[in-house]
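STRUCTURE:
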């Protein structure tokens, strides 16, 4: 069923190495990264040349060379190579940072586009804090690693290799001795990485919990204040923050000893090279000037190696972040082709044997329903019976489990998302508005519409007057999720936005639930006028608003209990009759001055 996609995505992401991910994600930037690796290698080679020059100088001194012009020249050469080393390193770093920023922007765009292609539920099931964290903070955190590791790791491995080969040419025994601290260093690093995954994952988990708790705390601030839950909610946040801090300190405590040991042992190459080299010199198997040269070079050999090894921690972190990004990017999408395979003939919608469930719980059991073109079909039924689920399936926000839904005779899975989106306008219960002006929110229904067209639609949908009463009229910014407007106002702007789209199939899921009866009548009137000739699927709790529908479908426990016109259902459906009686008495109450609707 729909939800298993998330697990599948996570499983696919497991077990991949840093290199796998870099080759996958950085494929488009391969040429730039290669250039930065080449620049970094040149930089490292330049930075080790002074060691050779210094070695040569010492050798010359020991061999009795006293012409200080030669040494001055060699000193100048060393300075030039040091500057060149810094220059190439800077060029390489600049290029790799630029490439990485572009790469990260690409990953973020890909994540955004991916979310739009996922079934709605997959997105909703993931806490918004976790998704935001992956798209912003976590993606940001790989920048430094990627920008430095790709060129510098390669270059810092190349430099010691070149030096080692050169040392082998002078004396292979001394070359091996110059790496004497390496096994111990590797042992320490292995001890550090032995149980790396578990504490590292814990830090990731606690960070996610902290993010989610923060997002929930801010999002639910209204409820928290209204119910006096500030203290308990804050305590939850404080606990999450403490647990997060503890996970990091535990992790650091576990790795600090082996890491410090490795960083102390690694540079101590002289401990082996110095005494054993002296023995070889005394035995006469190693020339003294070569001995001095090797002492100098062995110091230069281990420094880049330590730099390369110190990246191992960052590589571990980046691999884990790439895994999280990959898990989102490999989530199964709605099965829609890139190009539609057929052209719908009209806008009649037909559901045949549709079954659907959230997780293991099936909520629709074999729905057969015709929604005729150009007519109004209303879905009614008790709360939780499955009305919104039917609307979401028709809006193509989810894929059906079993059965099929067709538009004009074509299965929705045969139509590309773009083509189907052009056919349908959906207004949900939430009436989400973007934090921009009223004008832009309405224009989103048809990007490119002129101001005059936006205002005409607002007028036709009956919201022109209230928009003009807002502080800046159509230029009023509605706030995050439309927070500066009332629920009813948000719904009316959402309806205007849907009307702007002028799609042949219009789905209104309790789109007027916040409106007062007077405004609701107004909205109904304008919807009826604007939707004339369109296929309209409406879900409404107030039955009085749908009595004139061409077809009313009663949904009960995920099945269709009855269908017909208002008069037919009053005669034939006991459930509808009961609902109508309940609705009528509630209305009478409100008209008599009781609770208002
Ligand atoms: N995202 C979800 N995850 C899990 N279960 C869900 C989800 N959305 C809805 N459900 C469940 O599916 C069933 C049908 O829900 P649906 O929203 O379609 O009912 P409805 O008839 O529209 O209800 P209402 O009139 O209260 O809006 C309910 O039992 C609900 O709890």
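SEQUENCE:
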């Amino acid at each position: 069923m729909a939800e298993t996609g998330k697990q599948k995505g996570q499983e696919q992401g497991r077990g991949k190495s840093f290199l796998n991910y870099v080759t996958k994600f950085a494929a488009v930037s391969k040429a730039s990264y290669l250039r930065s690796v080449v620049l970094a290698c040149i930089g490292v080679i330049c930075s080790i040349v002074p060691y050779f020059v210094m070695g040569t100088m010492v050798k010359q001194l020991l061999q009795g060379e006293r012409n200080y012009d030669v040494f001055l020249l060699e000193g100048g050469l060393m300075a030039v190579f040091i500057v060149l080393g810094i220059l190439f390193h800077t060029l390489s770093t600049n290029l790799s940072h630029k490439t990485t920023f572009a790469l990260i922007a690409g990953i973020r765009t890909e994540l955004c586009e991916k979310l739009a292609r996922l079934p709605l539920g997959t997105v909703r099931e993931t806490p918004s804090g976790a998704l935001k964290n992956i798209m912003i903070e976590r993606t940001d955190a790989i920048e430094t690693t990627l920008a430095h590791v790709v060129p510098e790791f390669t270059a810092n491995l190349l430099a010691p290799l070149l030096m080692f080969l050169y040392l082998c040419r002078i004396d292979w025994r001394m070359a091996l001795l110059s790496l004497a601290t390496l096994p111990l260093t590797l042992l320490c690093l292995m001890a550090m990485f032995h149980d790396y995954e578990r504490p590292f994952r814990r830090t990731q988990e606690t960070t996610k919990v902290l993010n989610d708790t923060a997002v929930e705390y801010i999002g639910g601030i209204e409820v928290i204040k209204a119910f006096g839950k500030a203290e308990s909610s804050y305590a939850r946040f404080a606990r999450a923050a403490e647990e997060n801090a503890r996970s990091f300190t535990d992790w650091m405590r576990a790795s600090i000893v082996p890491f410090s040991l490795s960083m102390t042992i690694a540079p101590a190459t002289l401990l082996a090279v110095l005494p054993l080299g002296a023995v070889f010199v005394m035995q006469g198997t190693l020339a003294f000037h070569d001995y001095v040269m090797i002492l100098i070079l062995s110091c230069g050999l281990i420094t880049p190696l330590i730099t390369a090894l110190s990246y191992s921690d960052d590589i571990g972190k980046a691999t884990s972040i790439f895994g999280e990004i990959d898990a989102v990017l490999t989530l199964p999408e709605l099965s829609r082709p890139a190009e539609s395979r057929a052209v719908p003939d009209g806008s009649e919608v037909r559901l045949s044997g549709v079954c659907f469930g959230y997780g293991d719980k099936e909520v629709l059991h074999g729905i057969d329903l015709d929604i005729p073109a150009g007519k109004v079909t209303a879905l009614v039924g008790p709360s939780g019976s499955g009305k919104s689920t039917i609307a979401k399936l028709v809006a193509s926000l989810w894929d059906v489990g079993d059965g099929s839904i067709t538009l004009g005779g074509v299965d929705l899975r045969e139509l590309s998302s773009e083509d189907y989106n052009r056919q349908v306008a959906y207004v949900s219960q939430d009436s989400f508005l973007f934090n921009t002006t009223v004008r832009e929110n309405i224009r989103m229904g048809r990007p490119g519409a002129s101001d005059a067209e936006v205002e005409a639609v607002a007028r036709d949908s009956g919201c022109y007057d209230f928009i003009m009463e807002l502080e800046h009229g159509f230029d009023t910014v509605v706030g995050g999720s439309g927070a500066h407007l009332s629920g009813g106002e948000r719904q009316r702007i959402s309806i205007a936005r849907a009307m702007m789209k002028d799609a042949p199939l219009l789905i209104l899921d309790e789109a007027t639930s916040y409106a007062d009866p007077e405004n609701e009548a107004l909205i109904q009137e304008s919807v009826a006028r604007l939707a004339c000739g369109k296929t309209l699927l409406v879900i409404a709790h107030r039955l009085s608003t749908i009595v004139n529908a061409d077809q009313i479908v009663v949904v009960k426990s995920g099945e269709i209990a009855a269908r017909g016109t208002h008069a037919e259902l009053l005669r034939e459906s006991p459930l509808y009759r009961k609902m109508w009686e309940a609705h009528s008495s509630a209305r009478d109450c409100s008209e008599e001055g009781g609770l208002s609707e």
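REMARK: Confidence is low (pLDDT under 50) at residues 1-13, 593-597.
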